[in-house]
Amino acid sequence: MILQNIKAGDPSGLKALMERYVPYISVIVWNILRDAMSPQDAEEVVSDVFLAAWEQAADLKAGHVKGWLGTVARNKAKNKLRQMGRTISLEENSVDIPAPNDLSEAMEQDEERRLVRQAVDALPPEDKEIFLRHYYYAQSIKEISDHMALNESTIKTKLRRGRMKLKEALTKGGAG
After folding, report:
1. 20, 2, 24: which is closest to 12 by C-alpha?
2. Under DSSP, is residue 90 helix (H, G, I), strand (E, B) or coil?
Protein backbone atom coordinates (compact mmCIF):
# COMPACT_ATOMS: atom_id res chain seq x y z
CA MET A 1 0.00 0.00 0.00
CA ILE A 2 2.84 2.40 0.89
CA LEU A 3 4.60 1.68 -2.40
CA GLN A 4 1.39 2.10 -4.40
CA ASN A 5 0.75 5.47 -2.75
CA ILE A 6 4.26 6.71 -3.47
CA LYS A 7 4.10 5.59 -7.09
CA ALA A 8 0.72 7.32 -7.41
CA GLY A 9 2.24 10.56 -6.11
CA ASP A 10 0.32 10.44 -2.81
CA PRO A 11 2.32 12.19 -0.05
CA SER A 12 0.79 9.88 2.56
CA GLY A 13 2.87 7.06 1.06
CA LEU A 14 6.07 9.02 1.57
CA LYS A 15 5.04 9.89 5.13
CA ALA A 16 4.39 6.22 5.90
CA LEU A 17 7.72 5.22 4.33
CA MET A 18 9.54 7.76 6.46
CA GLU A 19 7.77 6.66 9.64
CA ARG A 20 8.86 3.10 8.98
CA TYR A 21 12.46 3.65 7.81
CA VAL A 22 13.83 6.90 9.29
CA PRO A 23 15.47 5.08 12.25
CA TYR A 24 17.10 2.52 9.94
CA ILE A 25 18.36 5.16 7.48
CA SER A 26 19.56 7.41 10.31
CA VAL A 27 21.74 4.63 11.72
CA ILE A 28 23.33 3.98 8.33
CA VAL A 29 24.00 7.69 7.78
CA TRP A 30 25.41 8.19 11.30
CA ASN A 31 27.66 5.12 11.01
CA ILE A 32 29.26 6.67 7.94
CA LEU A 33 29.30 10.34 8.95
CA ARG A 34 30.09 9.78 12.64
CA ASP A 35 31.56 13.02 14.01
CA ALA A 36 32.43 14.45 10.59
CA MET A 37 29.28 16.56 10.37
CA SER A 38 26.65 18.27 12.45
CA PRO A 39 23.35 16.55 13.28
CA GLN A 40 21.65 18.98 10.88
CA ASP A 41 23.90 17.81 8.01
CA ALA A 42 23.11 14.18 8.81
CA GLU A 43 19.37 14.95 8.93
CA GLU A 44 19.72 16.59 5.52
CA VAL A 45 21.29 13.41 4.12
CA VAL A 46 18.45 11.33 5.61
CA SER A 47 15.92 13.69 4.02
CA ASP A 48 17.74 13.41 0.69
CA VAL A 49 17.31 9.62 0.81
CA PHE A 50 13.54 9.95 1.08
CA LEU A 51 13.48 12.66 -1.57
CA ALA A 52 15.29 10.22 -3.86
CA ALA A 53 12.65 7.56 -3.06
CA TRP A 54 9.91 10.03 -3.95
CA GLU A 55 11.60 11.15 -7.17
CA GLN A 56 12.59 7.63 -8.22
CA ALA A 57 9.44 5.82 -7.11
CA ALA A 58 9.49 3.72 -10.28
CA ASP A 59 12.75 2.12 -9.08
CA LEU A 60 11.18 0.89 -5.83
CA LYS A 61 10.21 -2.77 -5.89
CA ALA A 62 8.10 -4.60 -3.31
CA GLY A 63 10.32 -6.60 -0.98
CA HIS A 64 13.42 -4.57 -1.88
CA VAL A 65 12.55 -1.11 -0.53
CA LYS A 66 14.67 -1.43 2.61
CA GLY A 67 17.75 -2.53 0.66
CA TRP A 68 17.23 0.21 -1.91
CA LEU A 69 16.91 2.86 0.80
CA GLY A 70 20.00 1.51 2.60
CA THR A 71 22.09 1.64 -0.56
CA VAL A 72 20.95 5.16 -1.37
CA ALA A 73 21.65 6.25 2.24
CA ARG A 74 25.16 4.81 2.15
CA ASN A 75 25.92 6.46 -1.19
CA LYS A 76 24.50 9.84 -0.21
CA ALA A 77 26.43 9.84 3.09
CA LYS A 78 29.68 8.93 1.31
CA ASN A 79 29.05 11.62 -1.32
CA LYS A 80 28.48 14.19 1.43
CA LEU A 81 31.83 13.26 2.96
CA ARG A 82 33.52 13.62 -0.41
CA GLN A 83 31.94 17.05 -0.92
CA MET A 84 33.46 18.13 2.37
CA GLY A 85 36.85 16.66 1.47
CA ARG A 86 36.62 14.07 4.21
CA THR A 87 37.28 10.35 4.15
CA ILE A 88 36.37 7.49 6.44
CA SER A 89 39.01 5.90 8.65
CA LEU A 90 40.09 2.38 7.83
CA GLU A 91 38.68 0.77 10.96
CA GLU A 92 37.18 -2.68 10.78
CA ASN A 93 34.11 -1.72 12.82
CA SER A 94 33.08 1.12 10.54
CA VAL A 95 31.83 -1.47 8.04
CA ASP A 96 29.04 -2.63 10.38
CA ILE A 97 25.55 -2.48 8.95
CA PRO A 98 22.63 -2.27 11.36
CA ALA A 99 20.76 -5.54 11.64
CA PRO A 100 17.05 -5.47 10.75
CA ASN A 101 14.37 -6.43 13.26
CA ASP A 102 13.35 -9.57 11.42
CA LEU A 103 15.56 -12.42 12.69
CA SER A 104 15.47 -14.49 9.49
CA GLU A 105 16.35 -11.42 7.42
CA ALA A 106 19.15 -10.61 9.86
CA MET A 107 20.53 -14.13 9.58
CA GLU A 108 20.36 -13.98 5.80
CA GLN A 109 22.18 -10.64 5.76
CA ASP A 110 24.78 -11.97 8.20
CA GLU A 111 25.42 -14.91 5.87
CA GLU A 112 25.69 -12.59 2.86
CA ARG A 113 28.15 -10.36 4.75
CA ARG A 114 30.15 -13.43 5.79
CA LEU A 115 30.38 -14.61 2.18
CA VAL A 116 31.36 -11.16 0.93
CA ARG A 117 33.95 -10.77 3.71
CA GLN A 118 35.34 -14.23 2.91
CA ALA A 119 35.55 -13.36 -0.79
CA VAL A 120 37.24 -10.02 -0.07
CA ASP A 121 39.66 -11.68 2.35
CA ALA A 122 40.64 -14.13 -0.42
CA LEU A 123 41.93 -11.24 -2.58
CA PRO A 124 45.69 -10.58 -2.59
CA PRO A 125 46.57 -8.06 0.20
CA GLU A 126 47.11 -5.05 -2.09
CA ASP A 127 43.91 -5.76 -4.05
CA LYS A 128 41.99 -6.21 -0.81
CA GLU A 129 43.19 -2.85 0.50
CA ILE A 130 42.25 -1.12 -2.75
CA PHE A 131 38.83 -2.79 -2.77
CA LEU A 132 38.09 -1.85 0.86
CA ARG A 133 39.32 1.71 0.45
CA HIS A 134 37.12 2.27 -2.59
CA TYR A 135 33.92 0.34 -1.86
CA TYR A 136 33.71 0.40 1.93
CA TYR A 137 35.46 3.61 2.85
CA ALA A 138 34.36 5.78 -0.10
CA GLN A 139 37.85 6.81 -1.13
CA SER A 140 38.20 8.02 -4.69
CA ILE A 141 40.58 6.38 -7.13
CA LYS A 142 42.77 9.49 -6.91
CA GLU A 143 42.92 9.27 -3.08
CA ILE A 144 43.84 5.58 -3.23
CA SER A 145 46.43 6.29 -5.91
CA ASP A 146 48.02 9.05 -3.83
CA HIS A 147 48.00 7.02 -0.61
CA MET A 148 49.31 3.78 -2.11
CA ALA A 149 51.63 5.36 -4.71
CA LEU A 150 49.99 3.44 -7.56
CA ASN A 151 48.90 4.62 -10.99
CA GLU A 152 45.16 5.40 -11.23
CA SER A 153 44.76 3.00 -14.16
CA THR A 154 46.31 0.25 -12.00
CA ILE A 155 43.75 0.98 -9.28
CA LYS A 156 40.89 0.77 -11.81
CA THR A 157 42.22 -2.51 -13.21
CA LYS A 158 42.59 -4.03 -9.74
CA LEU A 159 39.05 -2.92 -8.83
CA ARG A 160 37.64 -4.48 -11.99
CA ARG A 161 39.54 -7.74 -11.41
CA GLY A 162 38.47 -7.72 -7.76
CA ARG A 163 34.81 -7.34 -8.76
CA MET A 164 35.18 -10.24 -11.20
CA LYS A 165 36.81 -12.44 -8.52
CA LEU A 166 34.09 -11.56 -6.00
CA LYS A 167 31.33 -12.28 -8.50
CA GLU A 168 32.90 -15.63 -9.35
CA ALA A 169 33.35 -16.54 -5.69
CA LEU A 170 29.84 -15.47 -4.70
CA THR A 171 28.09 -17.17 -7.60
CA LYS A 172 29.77 -20.42 -6.56
CA GLY A 173 28.11 -20.02 -3.14
CA GLY A 174 31.16 -18.94 -1.22
CA ALA A 175 34.69 -17.68 -1.45
CA GLY A 176 36.48 -20.93 -0.96
Report:
1. 2
2. coil
Is residue 93 a part of any domain in this protein? no
Asked if residue 45 lies in contact with residue 33, where contact means CB atoms within 8 angstroms, the answer is yes
Q: For residue 124, give its domain range.
A: 102-176
Say yes or no: 106 and 84 in one domain.
Answer: no
Which residues neighbour 18 within 8 Å (Cβ) at sequence distance 6 or greater?
50
What's residue 168's pLDDT?
Answer: 81
Residue 65's closest CA among 138, 135, 13, 107?
Answer: 13
Asked if residue 40 is part of any domain, the answer here is yes
Q: What is the pLDDT of residue 175?
A: 42
| Distance separating alpha carbons of residues 159 and 140, to the nearest angstrom | 12
On whether the CB atoms of residues 132 and 94 are closer than 8 A, the answer is no
Is residue 91 a contact partner of residue 137, using CB atoms and an 8 Å limit?
no
Residue 84 predicted with pLDDT over 90:
no
Last residue of a domain, one of 88, 115, 140: 88
Out of 66, 88, 110, pick the residue that ends a domain: 88
Contacts with 66 (C-beta within 8 Å, 6 or more apart), sequence order: 21, 24, 100
**Structural domains counted in the chain:** 2
Contact 37, 80 (CB under 8 A): yes
